[in-house]
Amino acid sequence: MNNYSLFSLVRNALSGHRRWKPAWASPDPxxxxxxxxxxxxxxxxxxxxxxxxxxxxxxxxxIEKGWLGGGGSGRNTxxxxxxxxxxxxxxxxxxxxKLYEQLGRMLNFNIMLSQRGVLxxxxxxxxxxxxxxxxxxxxxxxxxxxxxxxxxIARLEPLLEVNGRYPVVGGFIQRRGGISRHDAVVWAFARxxxxxxxxxxxxxxxxxxxxxxxxxxxxxxxxxxxxxxxxCICVAGHTSVMANLAGFEVxxxxxxxxxxxxxxxxxxxxxxLASPELGVYLGQSDRGEIIIGGSADRYVxxxxxxxxxxxxxxxxxxxxxxxxxxxxxxxxxxxxTVDISPDTTPIMGYTPVQGLYMSGGWxxxxxxxxxxxxxxxxxxxANDTPHPLIEKFGLERFExxxxxxxxxxxxxxx
Length: 414
Ligand SMILES: Cc1cc2nc3c(=O)[nH]c(=O)nc-3n(C[C@H](O)[C@H](O)[C@H](O)COP(=O)(O)OP(=O)(O)OC[C@H]3O[C@@H](n4cnc5c(N)ncnc54)[C@H](O)[C@@H]3O)c2cc1C
What we know:
Largest sheet: 8 strands, mixed
Bound molecules: flavin-adenine dinucleotide
Structural class: alpha/beta
CATH superfamily of the largest domain: FAD/NAD(P)-binding domain
Oligomer: single chain
């Protein structure tokens, strides 16, 4: 595995960058594996990494129909935070944030984690009360979160319009929240998983399952059958498609979630801002672009484009929040498919088919969960027992009605 030390960076720069080894291998699929993971997004790759490095299962393949990171993991707005309402979610997402804090060192890859703070704004007293309740719950969950006054907000973000059409009457901040670089996270897990012996097989679609007497025996792919003792579905926006192929249903709705960014400008936005009432969030990337996101498009679709109404709403809200951004030109807009569960909490663990596991229902927030999702799914697969942090996230909660309603935390995607 390449070592990205200062010494190797200088040595390779001096030799014209011709001596770098490929960051991960691209082998042909073998006939059989202990574990097959479907989908080389962050969740699938992190699960493979932790299986091989923490739970002693390295005979693993990750099968990807396109290219690794080509799904939501390479299309998201990179927000990492753990300010969730319910104890189960807070414990899980804070485990993730803590892993993010160690990830650069753990994977020897600069994931560009920038804990600049995530600031949620209220434009009405009703919303302020909601944010207060949210903050109290987060603090009771042992996660950092504090209310901030309009005066403090104005000091924190000088460009923000606090007295405009949507006056800012307060807000709350999680100072450990922020952003990191999504491609780096995916590439870092791919590189480390490959070095630990995991086969990452791209351009290979899983087209069906080999199921015998209620137990999975392997998968059918566009390059032939592969047998496996255990299989894990990590396909985000296509979870229900995979579940249908395996003969069961999951209660998710697949929609386009879009994002957009402006031309780059000098550093001017210090925090990651979100306005649940205006349905928008924005932040500045390390390259200077203003990255803008909002709610999912309001119709079911697998098209990774996104429609004009949400694009328009996001830009109109941005112009109200930071009027000087009206002068910026929009450079790019894109979308990814997200699978939203009824309580907007992920669905992780067993499926009705023995030996077949799933990690899905990530909705608009599975990027921040990549390290914890990988760790807990790997534990679950290796031990055939749900990791304590995801015991409540199983598919069976929809039968028992034990929902973990995080609708407010993901009312505006990020
Ligand atoms: C615009 C946008 C903004 C977002 N912003 C944030 C954010 O700020 N913070 C946050 O936490 N989350 C955010 N998200 C959500 C986040 O991106 C996803 O929840 C997360 O990336 C899911 O990761 P994953 O590995 O499960 O899925 P993905 O990264 O989508 O990977 C799934 C992979 O499965 C592959 N696949 C599908 N079907 C098959 C098949 N039949 N055979 C083989 N492979 C298959 C796909 O090609 C894909 O590469 C955002 C999403 C979008 C679209």
